[in-house]
Design brief:
The protein has 625 residues and is α+β, with helices and mostly antiparallel strands. The protein folds into four domains: 211 residues, Immunoglobulin-like, CATH 2.60.40; 90 residues, Zincin-like (2-Layer Sandwich); 190 residues, Neutral Protease, domain 2; 99 residues, Pdz3 Domain. It is built from 16 helices and 31 strands. The chain has an eight-stranded mixed beta sheet with strand order 5-4-8-2-1-12-15-14. The longest helix has 20 residues. The N and C termini lie far apart (60 Å). 42% of the residues are buried.
């Protein structure tokens, strides 16, 4: 008890403004003491203890998040909590009632000493009927690896939303651990077997914003300019190492820093990479979740080195660019985020769309990809956006993103959202003689607002118009607030590029970015859509629209493992043997063949051979400025 109090006092001294009054145990005056014990995991559950201090009211509520920032989807972390109990100072249980999935009401709170509960992880139940969070925001509990997205373990009291937190994590001494959260001490047990790390957070947001990884990790630390990069990888079968990925990350982040210029960045950035084994109980929600100074990434372990490097560039660069928005430029909905009754900003076109555009543009700007590869990505986004409602107002969608029909159009923020950023960029380059673009606009907004000052959601578009040009205003009101589809040809004409139709290379589950497979929820099957007829590999091997895909190379295909199994087709190499079992209207059809390149009829974006000098100058300013 004395050691805990000493650590809590250190936390107060770190941020206390020279207060002369003695510290007492009133809950509003001290950090909330929280503890996770990784040495006492039973039945795949981590025990948690929460000691808030002494309450002066009769009833309090304790909640885990329904929604966490950056996900735009319901996670309901409370449903992974078991054995929730409250105890008084004599060790007796206090009455607790469940208000909803994520909130517990504690009566007789004046006598509350602590609460305890066990937390189950989300990774190993993703492929079941239980709804789980997006993998990078989820949790993992296994002897060799713990993904500690702390919002999955620690909650908040309704009357202590601004309190500091003192967090203890107890784990075997030999277990590696990484976190950007401020560590105040590390105490080793007398026998040396267990180390208790103590961390400090100024408020609950810092708990949710600083994930951790413990376990059998491969860690590389290196500098990119003045930023310390900590790359932590868990590869269950030791397929990939941090040292192999380090050079890719270094080049990428060096390019990003050069592209961003004088935008303020963090002194440390953590990348937590969990590589999923592909087993039935492995996570399959591949992607990443951003935080102010870190990102959690989940990708398939079976990816070849080159494919993993490419995925890291696309995924991690996107998350790092979130340093600009929404981390530095955001609305009140983001700044004062309510984890259980969230409201959403109208400006996902900025938070996700512009961020995705930066992650695409910087690669050609910094010479990481050739110009044609950049154009291929842009045409891919146009084709991807065609799968969604092109007449839907982006601001209306953003504000109502948890509801239908908007929720099912969310992925379009990475497709059309990025294209919105591109169009604004080209307009600003044209209006300014090549001197200003959307990056300079975001720099100006960062200086005006920054991470501690939110903008007014309803006024930001008018502010942007005032800061830029009438043409930008017309575009935003017509194509972002309004429902009018964008005529991309109009913007491509300005920079001397054009779309042409031709035979293009594609993969085995898409035609130029558009999926040729779909799921049947009632039957629990995956089937080929009409688009399979335009995919040369499948067409030549006899696949037909509406064929159910039963097995791929001996593995039964289900809705639960579809991401893993179909994602594995990206690793197919020419000459590989492939055996696919289909169900065609009740008749079994076997495709047994070797992998060949696949083509489809698609569009190609490229430079006009007769570009004018004006077009060439503007194009150079757009791509190289």
């Amino acid at each position: 008890m004395k050691r805990t109090l000493a650590k809590i006092s250190i936390g107060v001294l770190l941020v206390g403004c020279g207060a002369k009054t003695p510290i007492n145990d009133i809950a509003t005056s001290i950090p909330i003491a929280t503890a996770l014990d990784l040495t006492q995991v039973k039945n795949d559950k981590v025990p948690v203890v929460i000691n808030p201090g002494r309450f002066t009211q009769d009833t309090v509520k304790y909640s885990l998040p329904k929604v966490v920032q950056g996900t735009y989807a319901v996670s309901d972390f409370g449903k992974f909590v078991d054995d929730f109990k409250a105890f008084d100072y004599d060790g007796n249980e206090i009455n607790v009632t469940s208000e909803d999935t994520n909130t517990w009401v504690i009566t007789n709170a004046k006598n509350l000493d602590k609460i305890t509960y066990n937390v189950n992880d989300t990774y190993d139940i993703e492929n079941t009927d239980i709804g789980t969070p997006f993998s990078p925001s989820g949790t993992n509990i296994e002897p060799k690896n713990y993904v500690l997205n702390l919002h999955g373990f620690i909650g908040y009291f309704d009357v202590l939303k601004n309190n500091q937190y003192a967090l203890e994590v107890k784990a075997p001494t030999g277990m590696k651990r990484t976190s950007a959260l401020q560590k105040t001490s590390a105490d080793v047990s007398e026998d040396g077997a267990v180390t208790t790390d103590t961390y400090f957070a100024t408020r609950y947001f810092d708990i949710t914003d600083n994930p951790m990884m413990y376990g059998d990790l491969d860690v590389e630390e290196f500098m990119v300019g003045d930023i310390k990069i900590v790359l932590s990888i868990y590869s269950p079968n030791n397929v990939h190492t941090a040292s192999k990925i380090k050079e890719t990350v270094f080049k990428m982040m060096k390019g990003q820093k050069a592209y961003m210029g004088d935008i303020n960045s963090t002194p440390r950035y953590d990348i937590y990479l969990y590589l999923a084994s592909g087993a039935e109980d492995a996570p399959s929600g591949f992607g990443a979740l951003e935080h102010h100074t870190s990102t959690v990434v989940v990708l398939p372990e079976q990816m070849p080195d080159e494919a993993l490097a490419s995925a890291m560039i696309d995924v991690v660069s996107h998350e790092f660019f979130h340093i600009v928005t929404p981390l530095s430029v955001h609305s009140e909905d983001v700044h004062y985020f309510d984890y259980n009754q969230p409201t959403f900003s109208k400006h996902l076109w900025m938070y996700e769309g512009v961020t995705e555009y930066f992650a695409t543009l910087f690669q050609v700007n910094q010479g990481l990809v050739e110009e044609q590869e950049f154009y291929d990505k842009i045409i891919g986004k146009i084709q991807g956006a065609s799968s969604y409602d092109d007449t839907m107002s982006f601001t209306v969608m953003s504000e109502n993103i948890l509801e239908e029909p908007y929720a099912s159009n969310y992925i379009n923020v990475y497709e059309k959202g990025a294209l919105i950023g591109m169009c604004i960029d080209i307009l600003m380059r044209e209006e300014s003689g090549g001197n200003r673009g959307i990056l300079s606009l975001m720099k100006e907004l960062s200086l005006k607002y920054g991470k501690n000052k939110p903008f007014d959601d309803d006024k930001i578009i008018d502010e942007i118009i005032t800061m830029t040009y009438p043409s930008v205003g017309t575009f935003l009101k017509t194509h972002v607030v309004g429902k009018t589809p964008i005529n991309y040809k109009e913007f491509f004409d300005k920079v001397g590029i054009a779309i042409t139709s031709e035979k293009v290379k594609t993969n085995y589950i898409q035609n130029s970015g558009v999926l040729i497979v779909a799921g049947n929820q009632e039957k629990g099957t995956i089937f080929f859509t009409d688009l399979v007829a335009d995919n040369s590999f499948w067409a030549e091997n006899g696949a037909k629209p509406n064929d159910d895909i039963i097995e791929v190379n001996g593995t039964k295909l289900t809705l639960q493992n579809a991401n893993t199994i179909l994602g594995g087709t990206f690793q197919w190499q020419e000459g590989d043997d492939v055996v696919v079992k289909l169900n065609r209207a009740g008749k079994e059809v076997i495709i047994k063949t070797k992998v060949t390149k696949s083509y489809t009829n698609g569009n190609k974006l490229g430079v006009l051979k007769d570009s004018s000098k004006k077009q060439t100058v503007l194009r150079d300013a757009w791509l190289k400025g």
